[in-house]
Write a structure and sequence with these properties.
- This protein is an alpha/beta fold and about 110 residues long.
- The chain has a domain at about 45-70 and about 80-108.
- Helices cover about 45% and strands about 15% of the residues.
- The chain has a 4-stranded parallel beta sheet with strand order 2-1-3-4, with helices on both faces.
- The chain is globular, with a radius of gyration of 14 Å.
- The mean pLDDT is about 90.
């Protein structure tokens, strides 16, 4: 089976951000509209699991993707910082969502 779309994982701050679902879902919609297959950790139920369980689940999601898109607040997230290091170690493509979005804007 030939793959037509690049698979991407979406990373950013979740813990402590009451608006994380809105932020992640908006980014996932934009990436999906651009033709990506997006794995979005904000779809996981909360509450429901311990932090370590969420990290095991999201690590499996990340490992299955070709690339990782980092939301602007990723540096203040322990989990997203871990995901950045893991993506680097895995040799996955790394993109920063705000830069990707800016590059898609028409030049004036």
């Amino acid at each position: 089976m030939e793959k037509k779309h690049k698979t991407v994982y979406l990373a950013g701050k979740i813990t402590g951000d009451p608006h994380y679902r809105r932020k992640f879902n908006a980014a996932a919609r934009e990436l999906t509209a651009a033709g990506f297959v997006v794995l979005n950790p904000a779809i996981l139920p909360y509450p429901g699991f311990e932090y370590e369980a969420y990290m095991r689940i999201t690590t499996a999601m990340l490992d299955e993707c070709e690339a990782v898109y980092f939301l602007p607040d990723w540096r203040v997230s322990k989990g997203a910082s871990y995901e950045y290091n893991r993506a680097m170690a895995n040799g996955q493509d790394i993109f920063f969502f705000s830069e990707w979005k800016a590059a898609r804007q028409p030049q004036r």
